[in-house]
Write a structure and sequence with these properties.
The protein has 17 helices and 16 strands. It has 466 residues and is an alpha/beta fold. It has two domains: 286 residues, 3-Layer(aba) Sandwich (Rossmann fold), CATH 3.40.50; 120 residues, Isoleucyl-tRNA Synthetase, Domain 1. Strands 3-2-1-12-13-7 form a six-stranded parallel β-sheet, with helices on both faces.
């Protein structure tokens, strides 16, 4: 049995979860569940990023103290994860005392390595990304990820991290570990970024202007820049620096992140790890965005898909199914409420749900005892290809449906009971294998199918017609 550590990114608590967060959570949960089924010892981390200018501004707008504001949102994010049946082992919060202590120790070790210095700089800053932007990253003077926000010009004395020092080491990482950053297109982009020359980045903010953050060690006039603080959660969650044994058991980590986080995760964070003498992350998998009707989702366009509302209407496993099969694991994908309904009706109500009802009705009617069935072999998810794994399961659903149509066991069992019962038993065995195959993807549905076979009883409709 091997130890495996998985983490999502930790989202800001300045707004409720959107469908992209649901995608990342469900993808990571599938990897975690599949690894456990393989016999691995898994530690799965999610959480909330609770510092920074965006959070501070939202708290002030809400008329709340920042801590009260983030406490409320942390509960909402945990409920969101639970609604998606995310099997997390730890919920990391960057306002916890243990995390803040870890972030300060990380700062001290970077400083001891000579990688932190103070300087006066003028920068172009995207509040949406909470990141400095170079001219080459801007499109028509605006951030391409947040084109509705004006780029701010900031000049102040901050602490800086010597990112420029680590370009060669990062290039070696990419060369020595071909699958470190997936998919390949993101690795090529980061290599180009490094070759163009890495620039040191600000890691503090002046506390009198933006007090909501982890205090810089030995300088209360500054708080840590939100990204520097937040990235440390990946190691504070597993006991660093206090619990060395736990840390060594789990590290390094497999990270899942959106394509707006590639630089932070694959360049900044890896350089920070180098600075304090810790091993790199094990692997970083990057997913795309979800659009609707060909456009980025926005309230003004009225095309926002609320994942909580979709869960309430169609059920948790239906949402997991749609995100895993009908959204590309790596590329941008378009999704509409109409498409969600069509996928649900065609593939769940008329597909899997109908198959389970037909087979188990036959079994309950004609078989005197439960069928002895064996599980499908548990397999890891190859290269994060969730949609291909789901396609393989649905190919078996279609094949079983076709067999019923072709062999008509509901007729044969009346004319030749033994032959008909044999066909029904084989269909039940295949249904059991389909159920066990679905455990990482649709865990509640998988359990209902498995239980129905064990009880030799038709279950309630798995996916009612809506």
């Amino acid at each position: 049995m091997s130890a495996r550590y998985l983490t999502t990114t930790i989202p800001y608590v300045n707004a409720d979860a959107h469908i992209g967060h649901a995608l990342e959570f469900v993808q990571a949960d599938c990897v975690a569940r599949a690894a456990r089924l393989q016999g691995d010892d898994v530690f799965f981390n999610i959480g909330t990023d609770e510092h920074g200018a965006k959070v501070y501004t939202k708290a002030k707008e809400a008329g709340q103290e920042p801590q009260a504001y983030v406490d409320e949102f942390a509960v909402r994010w945990q409920k969101f994860a639970d609604a998606l049946d995310i099997s997390y082992d730890f919920f990391s919060r960057t306002t916890s005392d243990t995390h803040k202590a870890a972030a300060q120790e990380f700062w001290r070790r970077c400083a001891a390595a000579g990688d932190i210095y103070k300087a006066l700089y003028q920068i172009k800053y995207c509040v949406g990304c909470e990141l400095e932007k170079t001219d080459s990253e801007l499109v028509n003077g605006r951030c391409p990820i947040h084109p509705n926000l004006t780029i701010e010009i900031r000049e102040e004395e901050n602490y800086y991290f010597r990112l420029s020092k680590y370009g060669d080491a990062l290039l070696k990482l990419y060369a020595d570990t071909p699958d470190f950053l997936m998919p390949e297109e993101h690795k090529r982009a980061m290599i180009a970024l490094i070759n163009a020359g890495l620039k040191d980045f600000s890691i503090s903010r002046v506390a009198v202007k933006m007090p909501w953050g982890v205090l810089v060690p030995d300088d209360d006039a500054h708080v840590m820049y939100v990204w520097f603080d937040a990235l440390v959660n990946y190691i504070s969650a597993i006991g660093w620096p206090e619990n060395e044994e736990t840390f060594k058991k789990w590290w390094p980590v497999t990270q899942l992140a959106g394509k707006d986080q590639v630089r932070q995760q694959a360049v900044m964070w890896q350089a920070m790890l180098l600075s304090v003498g810790l091993p790199f992350s094990k692997q970083i998998f990057i997913h795309g965005f979800i659009t609707s009707n060909g456009q980025k989702m926005s309230k003004s366009l009225g095309n926002v898909i609320d994942p909580v509302a979709v869960i309430e209407k169609y059920g948790t496993d239906a949402v997991r199914y749609i995100l895993l099969r009908h959204v590309s694991p790596t590329q941008d994908s378009d999704l509409t409420l109409e498409a969600i309904h069509d996928h649900y009706t065609a593939n769940l109500t008329n597909g899997l749900g109908n198959l389970v009802a037909r087979v188990m009705q036959l079994a309950e009617t004609y078989l005197s005892a439960p069928v002895a069935a064996s599980s499908a072999a548990s397999e890891p998810i190859s290269d994060f290809k969730f949609n291909e794994a789901m396609d393989a399961v649905w190919a078996r659903v279609s094949a079983a449906d076709e067999r019923i149509t072709r062999e008509r066991p509901f007729v044969v069992v009346k004319e030749n009971p033994e032959e008909g019962k044999h066909v029904i038993a084989e269909l039940v065995q295949e249904l059991y294998r389909i159920g066990t195959s679905l455990r990482p993807y649709m865990p509640a549905t998988a359990e209902k199918i498995i239980q129905a076979v064990k009880e030799n009883k038709k279950p309630e409709n798995l996916f009612p017609r809506l």
